[in-house]
Task: structure prediction
Amino acid sequence: MPEHKALNKKIGEVDYFLKKPILDEYQVEEFENNIHYAMEYHLPISFILHNDGNPKELHGYCVYIHPVTKELRIQKKDSSFEKIQFSDLNGVIVED
Result:
């Protein structure tokens, strides 16, 4: 029985805690281009974030990018702000 519990725990960890994918330079460039395009035309963006293994989706407008730390300031649809790191991104979708 202890083996069964250990196996269930291992399977559960795989399902709930996904490893952060490694992005290549083309994906990073595509994310940057999508963010700049959305900022220029004030379009809403969906960000898919790696949140310690639990994917999180954030919707809003990117209003500022810190040039050194690559921190993004996102204005959510309820007019509140959230700061995210560029390195936490798994996906960027511009909502036309």
About this structure: The first helix runs from residue 2 to 16. DSSP finds two helices and five strands in the chain. The first strand starts at residue 45 and ends at 51. Strands lie at 45-51, 54-65, 71-76, 81-85, 89-94.
